[in-house]
What does this fold into?
Amino acid sequence: NAGVTQTPKFQVLKTGQSMTLQCAQDMNHEYMSWYRQDPGMGLRLIHYSVGAGITDQGEVPNGYNVSRSTTEDFPLRLLSAAPSQTSVYFCASSYSPGQGYNEQFFGPGTRLTVL
Amino acid sequence: AQKVTQAQTEISVVEKEDVTLDCVYETRDTTYYLFWYKQPPSGELVFLIRRNSFDEQNEISGRYSWNFQKSTSSFNFTITASQVVDSAVYFCALSTDIQGAQKLVFGQGTRLTINP
It folds into this structure.
Protein backbone atom coordinates (compact mmCIF):
# COMPACT_ATOMS: atom_id res chain seq x y z
CA ASN A 1 0.00 0.00 0.00
CA ALA A 2 1.43 3.35 -1.05
CA GLY A 3 -1.26 5.18 0.94
CA VAL A 4 -1.92 8.73 -0.26
CA THR A 5 0.54 10.02 -2.84
CA GLN A 6 0.93 13.55 -4.12
CA THR A 7 2.89 14.94 -7.05
CA PRO A 8 4.83 17.09 -7.46
CA LYS A 9 6.51 17.65 -4.11
CA PHE A 10 7.62 21.14 -5.05
CA GLN A 11 6.44 23.55 -7.73
CA VAL A 12 7.17 27.13 -8.68
CA LEU A 13 4.71 28.94 -10.91
CA LYS A 14 4.45 32.40 -12.35
CA THR A 15 1.32 34.44 -11.80
CA GLY A 16 -1.34 33.45 -14.29
CA GLN A 17 0.01 29.99 -15.04
CA SER A 18 -2.16 26.95 -14.58
CA MET A 19 -1.29 23.60 -13.14
CA THR A 20 -2.75 20.46 -11.60
CA LEU A 21 -1.72 18.97 -8.29
CA GLN A 22 -2.12 15.24 -8.39
CA CYS A 23 -3.44 13.09 -5.55
CA ALA A 24 -3.97 9.36 -5.57
CA GLN A 25 -4.83 6.76 -2.94
CA ASP A 26 -4.79 2.98 -3.12
CA MET A 27 -6.87 2.24 -0.03
CA ASN A 28 -10.25 2.29 -1.79
CA HIS A 29 -11.32 5.26 0.30
CA GLU A 30 -14.48 7.03 -0.77
CA TYR A 31 -13.71 10.35 0.90
CA MET A 32 -10.94 12.58 -0.40
CA SER A 33 -10.10 16.17 0.46
CA TRP A 34 -7.70 18.98 -0.31
CA TYR A 35 -6.35 21.31 2.37
CA ARG A 36 -3.94 24.18 2.24
CA GLN A 37 -1.58 25.05 5.07
CA ASP A 38 -0.48 28.62 5.64
CA PRO A 39 1.70 29.91 8.48
CA GLY A 40 -0.30 30.71 11.60
CA MET A 41 -3.56 29.47 10.09
CA GLY A 42 -3.44 25.73 10.39
CA LEU A 43 -4.97 23.74 7.54
CA ARG A 44 -8.05 24.89 5.70
CA LEU A 45 -10.33 22.77 3.57
CA ILE A 46 -10.43 23.69 -0.13
CA HIS A 47 -12.62 21.00 -1.73
CA TYR A 48 -13.74 17.52 -0.87
CA SER A 49 -15.36 14.52 -2.47
CA VAL A 50 -17.60 11.83 -1.00
CA GLY A 51 -17.15 9.51 -3.97
CA ALA A 52 -16.50 9.32 -7.68
CA GLY A 53 -18.44 12.01 -9.52
CA ILE A 54 -19.33 13.95 -6.35
CA THR A 55 -17.44 17.01 -5.15
CA ASP A 56 -18.20 19.98 -2.96
CA GLN A 57 -16.60 23.17 -1.74
CA GLY A 58 -14.82 23.62 1.53
CA GLU A 59 -13.82 26.76 3.39
CA VAL A 60 -11.50 28.32 0.77
CA PRO A 61 -12.52 27.07 -2.70
CA ASN A 62 -11.94 30.22 -4.78
CA GLY A 63 -9.31 29.82 -7.46
CA TYR A 64 -9.38 26.03 -7.38
CA ASN A 65 -11.25 23.36 -9.32
CA VAL A 66 -11.57 19.65 -8.63
CA SER A 67 -13.09 16.60 -10.24
CA ARG A 68 -13.38 12.97 -9.19
CA SER A 69 -13.66 10.62 -12.12
CA THR A 70 -12.27 7.60 -10.27
CA THR A 71 -12.18 6.46 -6.65
CA GLU A 72 -8.39 6.59 -6.64
CA ASP A 73 -7.66 10.07 -7.99
CA PHE A 74 -8.60 13.57 -6.87
CA PRO A 75 -6.66 16.26 -8.76
CA LEU A 76 -6.67 19.91 -7.74
CA ARG A 77 -6.48 22.46 -10.56
CA LEU A 78 -5.26 26.03 -10.33
CA LEU A 79 -6.58 27.74 -13.45
CA SER A 80 -4.71 31.04 -13.06
CA ALA A 81 -2.21 30.98 -10.22
CA ALA A 82 -1.92 33.96 -7.90
CA PRO A 83 0.72 34.75 -5.23
CA SER A 84 -1.99 34.25 -2.59
CA GLN A 85 -2.03 30.59 -3.54
CA THR A 86 1.53 30.11 -2.34
CA SER A 87 1.06 27.42 0.28
CA VAL A 88 1.58 23.80 1.19
CA TYR A 89 -1.19 21.60 -0.15
CA PHE A 90 -2.26 18.37 1.48
CA CYS A 91 -4.52 15.73 0.07
CA ALA A 92 -6.32 13.39 2.45
CA SER A 93 -8.58 10.36 2.24
CA SER A 94 -10.69 8.39 4.66
CA TYR A 95 -13.02 5.44 4.89
CA SER A 96 -16.73 5.82 4.42
CA PRO A 97 -19.04 4.87 7.28
CA GLY A 98 -19.29 1.21 7.95
CA GLN A 99 -15.80 0.50 6.75
CA GLY A 100 -14.06 1.19 10.00
CA TYR A 101 -12.26 3.89 11.88
CA ASN A 102 -12.70 7.20 10.09
CA GLU A 103 -9.17 8.49 10.37
CA GLN A 104 -8.03 10.84 7.63
CA PHE A 105 -4.83 9.73 5.95
CA PHE A 106 -2.78 12.61 4.64
CA GLY A 107 -0.40 12.71 1.73
CA PRO A 108 3.12 14.13 2.08
CA GLY A 109 2.15 17.54 0.73
CA THR A 110 3.03 19.74 -2.25
CA ARG A 111 4.87 22.98 -1.62
CA LEU A 112 3.72 25.55 -4.18
CA THR A 113 5.25 28.96 -4.74
CA VAL A 114 3.62 31.47 -7.06
CA LEU A 115 5.83 34.35 -8.12
CA ALA B 1 -19.80 27.78 12.65
CA GLN B 2 -17.08 25.56 13.98
CA LYS B 3 -13.86 26.90 15.39
CA VAL B 4 -10.74 25.51 17.04
CA THR B 5 -8.40 27.68 19.04
CA GLN B 6 -4.89 26.74 20.08
CA ALA B 7 -3.84 29.77 22.05
CA GLN B 8 -0.25 28.66 22.49
CA THR B 9 1.61 29.54 19.32
CA GLU B 10 4.97 28.26 20.54
CA ILE B 11 6.13 26.32 23.57
CA SER B 12 9.71 25.57 24.50
CA VAL B 13 10.68 23.23 27.31
CA VAL B 14 13.68 21.26 28.44
CA GLU B 15 13.75 17.56 27.83
CA LYS B 16 11.98 15.41 30.46
CA GLU B 17 9.60 18.19 31.42
CA ASP B 18 5.87 17.59 31.13
CA VAL B 19 4.04 19.86 28.72
CA THR B 20 0.36 20.45 28.00
CA LEU B 21 -0.98 21.76 24.72
CA ASP B 22 -4.33 23.46 24.98
CA CYS B 23 -7.21 23.14 22.54
CA VAL B 24 -10.58 24.87 22.83
CA TYR B 25 -13.32 24.24 20.31
CA GLU B 26 -16.65 25.77 19.38
CA THR B 27 -19.58 23.98 17.80
CA ARG B 28 -23.35 23.87 18.18
CA ASP B 29 -23.54 20.28 17.06
CA THR B 30 -24.06 17.61 19.67
CA THR B 31 -22.22 15.00 17.62
CA TYR B 32 -18.67 15.86 16.72
CA TYR B 33 -15.17 14.44 16.61
CA LEU B 34 -11.92 15.82 17.91
CA PHE B 35 -8.46 14.99 16.65
CA TRP B 36 -4.82 15.68 17.34
CA TYR B 37 -2.21 15.56 14.60
CA LYS B 38 1.56 15.90 14.81
CA GLN B 39 3.60 17.57 12.08
CA PRO B 40 7.31 16.86 12.55
CA PRO B 41 9.98 18.94 10.78
CA SER B 42 9.77 16.58 7.80
CA GLY B 43 6.32 18.02 7.10
CA GLU B 44 3.97 15.05 7.04
CA LEU B 45 0.86 14.92 9.21
CA VAL B 46 0.75 12.11 11.74
CA PHE B 47 -2.56 11.12 13.28
CA LEU B 48 -2.43 10.84 17.07
CA ILE B 49 -5.95 10.44 18.38
CA ARG B 50 -9.64 10.70 17.55
CA ARG B 51 -12.34 11.19 20.15
CA ASN B 52 -16.11 11.49 19.62
CA SER B 53 -18.34 13.79 21.62
CA PHE B 54 -20.03 10.94 23.46
CA ASP B 55 -16.82 9.55 24.85
CA GLU B 56 -15.42 11.76 27.57
CA GLN B 57 -13.01 9.22 28.90
CA ASN B 58 -9.49 10.47 29.06
CA GLU B 59 -6.95 8.45 27.13
CA ILE B 60 -3.37 7.55 27.76
CA SER B 61 -0.97 6.17 25.21
CA GLY B 62 2.52 5.79 26.54
CA ARG B 63 3.81 9.26 27.35
CA TYR B 64 0.82 10.90 25.67
CA SER B 65 -2.48 11.64 27.35
CA TRP B 66 -5.58 13.53 26.38
CA ASN B 67 -8.10 15.29 28.59
CA PHE B 68 -11.51 15.84 27.01
CA GLN B 69 -13.88 18.12 28.95
CA LYS B 70 -17.18 18.97 27.28
CA SER B 71 -18.05 21.39 30.08
CA THR B 72 -15.20 23.68 29.03
CA SER B 73 -15.10 22.63 25.35
CA SER B 74 -11.50 21.62 25.69
CA PHE B 75 -9.42 18.74 24.43
CA ASN B 76 -5.96 19.16 25.89
CA PHE B 77 -2.90 17.08 25.09
CA THR B 78 -0.16 16.32 27.61
CA ILE B 79 3.26 14.87 26.90
CA THR B 80 4.91 13.41 29.96
CA ALA B 81 8.69 13.30 30.22
CA SER B 82 9.13 15.05 26.90
CA GLN B 83 11.82 14.01 24.47
CA VAL B 84 13.61 15.84 21.68
CA VAL B 85 11.74 13.67 19.14
CA ASP B 86 8.50 15.25 20.35
CA SER B 87 9.55 18.53 18.76
CA ALA B 88 6.92 19.28 16.13
CA VAL B 89 3.90 21.37 15.33
CA TYR B 90 0.76 19.92 16.88
CA PHE B 91 -2.69 20.53 15.48
CA CYS B 92 -6.02 20.06 17.15
CA ALA B 93 -8.95 19.57 14.78
CA LEU B 94 -12.72 19.29 14.89
CA SER B 95 -15.16 17.54 12.60
CA THR B 96 -18.92 17.85 12.87
CA ASP B 97 -19.59 15.71 9.85
CA ILE B 98 -21.69 12.86 11.20
CA GLN B 99 -19.73 10.45 9.07
CA GLY B 100 -16.72 11.11 11.19
CA ALA B 101 -13.78 12.66 9.48
CA GLN B 102 -14.69 14.25 6.23
CA LYS B 103 -14.40 17.97 6.93
CA LEU B 104 -11.81 18.93 9.47
CA VAL B 105 -11.50 22.38 11.01
CA PHE B 106 -7.98 22.86 12.31
CA GLY B 107 -6.56 25.06 14.98
CA GLN B 108 -3.64 27.30 14.21
CA GLY B 109 -1.15 24.80 15.59
CA THR B 110 1.32 24.89 18.48
CA ARG B 111 5.01 24.64 17.71
CA LEU B 112 6.62 22.58 20.44
CA THR B 113 10.38 22.64 20.88
CA ILE B 114 12.02 20.23 23.26
CA ASN B 115 15.54 21.32 24.13
CA PRO B 116 18.14 18.76 25.22
